[in-house]
Write a sequence for this structure.
């Protein structure tokens, strides 16, 4: 296949590009600024510019670009950047694809399990409705901004991704230092649910979406066994052979990240199940957290 990837230098995009290229597929990177080779296409979502002609004739597009949600405190400026980067980029890309003479057959557009909001112990599938809060609002607008591609007859799948487990980036990389120092502890009550997925399964699931014509609309990219924050904490501590008995003080988290971000991202959660992936035959390489963490950290399961 000929596949366009936005966000190709991020954690997921770089792993996906390597996987596709390793199997002989042709990957074209949609990059901000000047394109520097035959396999790059320039775009600028904020300015509304894109090299439309260079997008002609590709088989699939995987859209992963967007300002990092957890990279900074949730100031009004950062929240606006998070929303605008997703809505503007997705709208520009899908509107352009819809107008091509030879558009792709499928667009796999980034999304997140934050769509569901903080729902306690409720089991959530792709049939569940949206939640409330900043993240839920962002994801709803993010997905809606891909409407031009759907209207043009392009198959669109929304990749509602959980917390990706990788030693190379994302939340786990940030957690490793305090956990290795014996300072890892549960957050709040520890009863909030974490919907997670190992990086290899994330890549495999995206490729499954591209290859499976019946997958249209939302698809939950998360392992079939979500865990509570307490269970995650204890599992990572056992794997690293470090204590995790002392909870992380909530006031310290609020001082560092702000109350809204802590409430939604650290003390809230979703118990999400991958109904669409499993019903279409996807097999997880790492369906349990212990196996997934051992795999990404190169350690023996605890």
């Amino acid at each position: 296949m000929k596949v366009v990837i936005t966000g190709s230098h991020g954690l997921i995009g770089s792993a996906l590009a390597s996987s596709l290229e390793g199997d002989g597929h042709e990957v074209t990177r949609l990059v901000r600024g000047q394109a520097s080779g035959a396999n790059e296409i320039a775009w600028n979502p904020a300015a509304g510019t894109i090299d439309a002609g260079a997008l002609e004739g590709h088989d699939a597009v995987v859209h992963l670009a967007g300002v990092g949600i957890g990279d900074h405190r949730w100031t009004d400026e950062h929240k606006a950047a998070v929303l605008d980067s997703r809505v503007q980029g997705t709208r520009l890309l899908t509107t352009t694809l819809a107008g091509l003479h030879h558009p792709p057959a499928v667009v796999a557009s980034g999304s997140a399990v934050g769509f569901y909001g903080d729902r306690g112990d409720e089991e959530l599938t792709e049939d569940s409705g949206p939640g409330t809060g900043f993240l839920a609002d962002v994801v709803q607008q993010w997905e809606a901004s891909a409407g031009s591609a759907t209207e043009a007859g392009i198959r669109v799948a929304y990749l509602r991704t959980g917390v990706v487990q990788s030693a190379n980036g994302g939340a786990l990389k940030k957690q490793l230092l305090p956990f290795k120092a014996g300072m890892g502890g549960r957050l709040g009550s520890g009863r909030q649910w974490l919907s997670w997925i190992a990086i290899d399964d994330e890549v495999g699931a995206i490729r499954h979406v591209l290859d499976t014509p019946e997958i249209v609309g939302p698809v939950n990219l998360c392992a079939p066994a979500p865990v509570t924050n307490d269970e995650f904490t204890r599992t990572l501590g056992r794997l690293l052979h470090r204590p995790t008995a002392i909870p992380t003080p909530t006031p310290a988290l609020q001082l560092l990240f702000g109350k809204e971000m802590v409430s939604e991202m650290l003390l809230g959660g979703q118990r999400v199940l991958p109904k669409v992936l499993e019903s279409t035959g996807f097999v997880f390489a790492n369906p349990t957290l212990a196996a997934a963490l051992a795999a990404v950290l190169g350690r023996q399961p605890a």
In short: The chain has a mean pLDDT of 96. The two ends are 40 Å apart (CA to CA). DSSP finds eleven helices and 14 strands in the chain.
